[in-house]
Specification:
Elements: H1 10-16, H2 27-47, E1 65-67, E2 70-72, E3 78-81, H3 84-87, H4 96-108, H5 119-136, E4 140-145, H6 148-163, E5 167-171, H7 180-184, E6 203-205, H8 225-232, E7 242-243, E8 248-249, E9 251-256, H9 272-282, E10 286-290, E11 314-317, E12 329-334, H10 335-338, H11 356-371, H12 374-395, E13 399-405, E14 408-413, H13 423-435, E15 438-440, E16 443-448, E17 451-452, E18 458-461, H14 469-490
Parallel strand pairs: 3-16, 5-6, 5-9, 9-10, 10-11
Antiparallel strand pairs: 1-2, 2-3, 4-12, 7-8, 11-12, 13-14, 14-18, 15-16, 17-18
Bound molecules: pyridoxal-5'-phosphate.
The site of pyridoxal-5'-phosphate has 15 residues, from helix 6.
Length: 492
């Protein structure tokens, strides 16, 4: 593996990394920036709730600009972003085409109550419906909302209305958002612990996390044991899931992520979802496919579900639909579920659902996907990036596992035995990356990472889909530096 860090000049790098700009500032300017931020942090500590995720970091970081794959702090230090707002900014920061669509809409129809129609809403719904028809051969409709968890709630309402059931199946490690209903199908107990009883809490089923198989099996020889365990739940009534006489299940739907996102970018073995869908379909349990994080080419296909050889009854998406601009989310459901006689006017509503700025932006995003060749470029780049991670793994035995699908990549940080989860190492890498004291081609840089996984020890990598090969080489070298630095700090 050749990555030629120092051989390249900063000027050359700026040419090969769209959005990268090195700016030197004086020590006095830097000191002023630091002082201003310290003052603002004191205010923030008092007036901002700490209930969001800002204070996951030891010292929250301010950013002032963004472009392409880079964020810039007050000192104009570039940070290579390898998580792109948890995969909301798949087409790069400040993407000109997408931004212009938003700006045009601001001048044209910036506000409109969702009770009235505007053209962009219809065009976007048509594009989404057609893409799903092309991929899965199914007719359906789109129902918009604002945030991911809100769309998940809409999917839950649709399932409840269709089946009359309020209990769902979901995966251990699954993440579907943090509103009350979304928390009830999100496995992490931490998100429910302080909030009373969740009577309709999902039944959580082990996900095929083959690096740490919940059944202690090896993928080469397990013979799909985990799927057999799901099927076994329908053998008789005493497992509590199923009545063989009435042929009825307690559950309305199984909520899935094809590649588990917050759970640590876990890619299941081939054929897994085909088997799962068959088991569910035979028992009248719907499949709800949460594409909020893995949709929009993150895995190399427009919909992650396209990797599975099966389809969903309901799909949920958000995040990258607007490239992180005006938020918009949606569900798609098959006509048999969401036809007007089944899901009539007002079934769900939010003031800002199908907002015109979001739909115009979403339309530009879908056009960008149509014009690009992401089905080719993302798998190619993903393969290259995965090889870089494998190269790092050879050098750093603490990387227990690397894997990925498209540009959804995982790097599992472990102790020296390459297996015991090392949250401390992942945390240290996260913090050192944010400190912005790494160096590349003689210039100061930072690295933006995200941590996921059941043990919070997985670096989940979701770079821009437009990341360049030079930027991937840069990522390799910065990760190498970061690992060396973090291990030294921890005495590993
Ligand atoms: C798979 C998945 N579902 C749902 C959500 C919730 O979306 P939002 O944060 O927009 O409410 C997320 C967010 O990370 C997600 O990754």
């Amino acid at each position: 593996m050749t990555t030629k860090t120092e051989a390249v000049s900063p000027e050359q790098l700026e040419k090969e990394c769209p959005g990268l700009k090195f700016t030197d500032i004086s020590a006095a300017e830097a000191a002023q920036v630091k002082k201003d931020e310290e003052d603002l942090l004191k205010v923030e500590a008092k007036v901002c709730s700490h209930g969001d995720t800002v204070h996951y970091a030891e010292r929250p970081t301010f950013f002032e600009n963004c472009k392409g794959s880079f964020l810039y702090d007050g000192e104009k230090t570039p940070f290579l972003d390898l998580q792109m707002w948890y995969s909301a900014v798949n087409l790069g920061y400040a993407n000109e085409k997408i931004n212009n669509a938003l700006k045009d809409q601001i001048d044209k129809l910036p506000q409109l109550a969702c009770q009235y129609l505007h053209k962009e809403k219809v065009h976007l719904a048509e594009k989404l419906v057609n893409s799903i028809k092309r991929s899965f051969g199914k007719e359906g409709r789109i129902h918009f909302n604002v945030g991911g968890a809100q769309a998940v709630e809409d999917a839950l309402k649709l399932v409840r209305k269709t089946t009359g059931k309020s209990r769902m199946l979901a995966f251990e490690g699954g993440y579907h958002g943090r509103t009350l209903a979304a928390s009830s199908i999100t496995s992490s107990y931490r998100y429910r612990e302080a909030y009373g009883e969740f009577g309709d809490r999902a039944e959580f089923v082990p996900f095929p996390y083959c690096f740490r198989c919940p059944y202690g099996k090896k993928v080469e020889s397990c013979g799909n044991y985990c799927i057999e365990q799901i099927e076994r739940k329908f053998d008789h009534e005493y497992t509590s899931w199923w009545n063989p006489k009435t042929k009825k299940s307690e559950f309305g739907a199984f909520f899935i992520e094809v590649v588990q996102g917050t759970g640590g970018y876990i890619v299941p073995p081939k054929g897994y979802f085909e088997k799962l869908a068959k088991i569910c379909r035979e028992r009248g349990i719907m499949i709800v496919d949460d594409e909020i994080q893995m949709g929009f080419y993150r895995t190399g296909k427009l919909w992650a579900m396209e990797h599975t050889g099966t389809h969903a009854d309901v799909m949920v998406f958000g995040k990258a639909l607007t490239n992180g601009l005006n938020p918009l989310s949606a569900i798609w459901a098959g006509e048999e579920l969401i036809s007007p006689d089944k899901f009539g006017p007002g079934s769900t509503h939010s003031t800002f659902s199908s907002n015109s700025l979001g739909t115009a932006t979403g339309l530009a995003v879908m056009k960008a996907f149509e014009e690009g060749d992401y089905a080719t470029s993302v798998p190619e780049k993903g393969k290259y990036f995965l090889n870089l991670l494998k190269d790092l793994q050879k050098k750093h035995k603490e990387i227990g596992d690397v894997d990925g699908l498209g540009l959804a990549l995982r790097m599992e940080m472990c102790e020296a035995d390459a297996y015991t989860p090392s949250r401390r190492l992942a945390d240290m890498m996260f913090q050192k990356g944010l400190d912005g004291e790494l160096s590349y081609a003689g210039k100061k840089m930072g690295l933006i990472l995200d941590i996921g996984g059941y043990y919070k020890n997985v670096i989940t990598l979701a770079p821009s889909l437009d990341i360049t090969y030079r930027e991937m080489d840069m990522a390799h070298d910065l990760l190498d530096q970061l690992l060396t630095l973090a291990k030294k700090e921890l005495g590993m």
